[in-house]
Amino acid sequence: MTLRYTATCLFGLEGFLGEEIDSLGYKRIENIDGRITFEADENACAVCNTNLRYAERLYLNLGSFDANTFTELFDGTKELPWEEFIGRDDEFPVSGHAIKSKLFSVPDCQKIVKKAISVRLGEKYSLKILPETGTRYKIEFFILKDRASLMIDLSGVPLHKRGYRPETVDAPIRETLAAAMVKISRPREDVLLWDPFCGSGTIAIEAAMMMKNIAPGLKRTFVSEEYSVFPKKSWKDAREEAESRIIHDTSFEAYATDINPKCVEIAQAAAMRAGVADRLNIFIMDALDIDTLGRRGTIVTNPPYGERLLTVEEAESLYRAMGQSFARLEKWQIYVITQSEIFPQLYGRRADKIRKLYNGMIPCYYYQYFKNRDKK
Question: DSSP letters along 39-107, please?
């Protein structure tokens, strides 16, 4: 059976997500900001939920249609084959978004979509009132420029929540963004990766998971495991296949350090849960005391910035100090993400490359320094 899926991601990560979907052998049919739609069989639900490192959620996409009026939204929704997925007793709450569309009232759209699905299922199951006491299928509509897409959530808890970080520090970086930051930094087995502002350890943990080829969803469950359309065996197969691909003999190593003992404690516990404690060295240290230790290395970090953990003035002072301290790291590459648009001026060096990324809905700038040289 060929199904249509939509995977969502943070803005700026569409390229990475698309490459993952391609590598799994699935056919992309639409790319827009923050989401990729593709075709695959019923086993892809388990494979994608388990393996997609840069996705936020996976959806079953039932169809798209023009919706300039509530009548068009009702009729288009009612035409979709809901009974192929939702049983006579199943629950189906509705939520969604409307962007740059004539139908901008989300509550009104929710009511229309809910009513249309209810009418179709009522007709199919010969029921005037649907019980909604069975399996819960969360329906989501997405209306962009008067084009509506109707989907069923297949992830439940967002995919960036891998399960290794039940306890976090203030303002943590999202796991999917951390993975992208690591990917951009091109981690290598013979190069030490160091996050000197590690917080809960997310960047270093994502790096080690990537280098050990640990599937991000391997240790968690998904709402669609209860959906009858997806074979129970597909989940077992996806997990066994992911387990078989784990690299156990990598020489990759990452340091995760922080001046806050509580952060170090949280990061150590998270690394254990993620199964990468053997590849990480996590300890208390002031980021400004960092040294090369005679090794080749790469800094990948998310330092505090104004409106997050420090005042703007404190953050700017820290960035100046970072520029002075990191100058002694010789040929190390430096990758820093921050909300500050003037980081290079404060740091004392023009970045070799800047990439705009998003931590949730917060726009950030990923400053990349490929060769540590004298300040300009």
Answer: EE-TTHHHHHHHH-SS-SEEEEEEEEEE-SSHHHHHHHHHTS-GGGTS-TT-B--EEEEEESSS---HH
Three-state secondary-structure class, residue 184: helix
- CA separation for the pair 267, 254 (Å, rounded): 12
The DSSP H or E segment spanning 22 is helix 14-23
Please return the burial class of 32, using the count of CB atoms within 10 Å of its CB with bins 0-12, 13-18 and 19+.
middle
pLDDT in tens, 163-181: 998 766 666 899 999 999 9
Q: What contacts 133, CB < 8 A, 6 or more positions away? A: 89, 91
Distance (Å, rounded) from C-alpha 322 to C-alpha 343? 10
Per-residue pLDDT of 289-328, as tens digits, reads: 999 989 999 999 999 875 555 788 899 999 999 999 999 9
CB 27 within 8 A of CB 50: no
pLDDT at residue number 24: 97
Instruction: Using a cut of 0.85, tell me whether the model's pTM lies above it.
Output: yes
Instruction: Look at residues 331, 323, 328 and name the one whose alpha carbon lies nearest to residue 350.
Output: 323
- Please state, in angstroms and rounded to a whole number, the distance separating the CA atoms of residues 305 and 367: 14
